[in-house]
Task: structure prediction
Amino acid sequence: MVESRDDPTVGELSEGAILARILERLPGSSAEVGPGDDAAVLAAADGRIVASVDTLVHGPDFRLAWSSGFDLGFKAAAVNLADIAAMGATPTALLVALAMPDSTRLSFVTALAEGLRSACEELAPGCAVEGGDLTVSDTLTVAVTALGALAGRPPVRRSGARPGDVVAVAGTLGRADRGLRVLFERFTDAAGAPVPVDERSLSEAERDDVRAQLRPSPPVALGPVAADAGATAMMDVSDGLLLDASRLATASGVTLSLDSTALGHDVAAALTGGEDHALLATFPAAPAVPPGFHRVGAVLPPSEHAVLVDGAPPTGRSGWDPYRDWDARTG
Amino acid sequence: MVESRDDPTVGELSEGAILARILERLPGSSAEVGPGDDAAVLAAADGRIVASVDTLVHGPDFRLAWSSGFDLGFKAAAVNLADIAAMGATPTALLVALAMPDSTRLSFVTALAEGLRSACEELAPGCAVEGGDLTVSDTLTVAVTALGALAGRPPVRRSGARPGDVVAVAGTLGRADRGLRVLFERFTDAAGAPVPVDERSLSEAERDDVRAQLRPSPPVALGPVAADAGATAMMDVSDGLLLDASRLATASGVTLSLDSTALGHDVAAALTGGEDHALLATFPAAPAVPPGFHRVGAVLPPSEHAVLVDGAPPTGRSGWDPYRDWDARTG
Result:
């Protein structure tokens, strides 16, 4: 076995050695049983636990030419933290299943661990990686399970919106989608293959958009704020506002009427771009929506259309469906 | 879009259509919030939750020529249920992240869902799939998170074994490993590629061994039994008795002395074959080990070796390490 002295591949190391290098990047666990046993034992103080899983797969979900290990770890945590927030809960723990080719460099894996930790520190202080699993795969895959606490609150479901409620959003809409367009337009070679990002060639706005795509920063802390403010329904916008609003409307048996004037300067991206992981919520008309949220529409009685934009049914492409949209040949 | 009329691929269907076909195979959820929202909300009656994740990846962990969708779903559930049992807990919920090529047939996916359900019904009644995630990948991957309840018990960790304790095992040892050898020796073509299993060509013992490999049946219900009987340490045997016993010994700061006469007729397979997911536990010398467990050795004070077999240090290969052992070229 010949090791690359400075930065071995995971195929050159034992599972235990890789795990040790990952765990030294993760903060000390406060759990009853943290990483290292068959399972973690975690507090669930109000007798309930909120749980969700989301997976990032090399190809459809990220490209290694564009995403660093840190970016990938940060995004894998962020998208899952947003799901917990969308129930009105506070994230408490992550479990991370990491499947990687044995050609993966150890430095990539340790950066990924640092990205996971940073996302927890920035977006959900008190949440930590409490367990996980390492395995070999031809396709780099990060499946993160996030757990959270409602602290006695009722969960905010998708199905509680009522006619007369206000529709509101926290976080950005469309920025990650614009960032993805910058990546495809500016950082691919003649054959369409991704090439590394040169941030110096980007305007400040473009840089923000690309960062929103590679390292999204959803408003996780505002999930419990929305719940405490009486949100009647909530979800995170992962597949585009139009598609996700139609899901919330359908689950609630209502129509969501959106005002395009509330959606910023790039209405098309705001309506169809999903990966910012903004929070979409409905609130009773009074009192005002809580700080951090802004009004984007109103809940109407059910009608022929789940969603209206400026009073009319939307036209064209509505959002991202991985089974319809991903094509390995064209990316 | 041309659909294969009888059995479409997942690439021909929307995510919602695939999900609907999966969910109709899974039993009704008793959770406060089950599948279909951003996250599930699950009971954690004693204020704690046990959580673990484990991943099966096409190639290192299963071959599609050998494993049906049902087998894969069953095994993905079983290996995770065993991790919960190994803490002394009862599994309560699974979250399933399924990443698959868009050429995957819908019939394979629905069979996988049925395998998940059957494993829960057989091994952990009351446990159900409460959430998940579908995504596209070039490599079929099933990452399962299992959650469980301790019902007020202290968790049984790996680190509690004490000199004077008895070492005991519940479940089979080595059978899945023998099954894997049958598969490699009898169901590969001249180039070493797997070919479908013809069960009629197998003896009854071989058929049992192959089934133990493809559809393991760990003694999940005996985890809480062991805890209630005062188990001082426990883990599931996933990488071979020698390797896992040495982990338990190291975590506990003791030596585990195994008696080969207690390991059945195929001692080599019992010592190094892991995928049966038996439970390895230590108990105080009195009273007797609980029903379902049998004595395989004794706990000694720490010594130069973590594990002894018949009083001597073991020789040769000790178990499975995916990063050392998997080679995509040779399988």
Observations:
- Chain A has two domains: 10-149, 166-325.
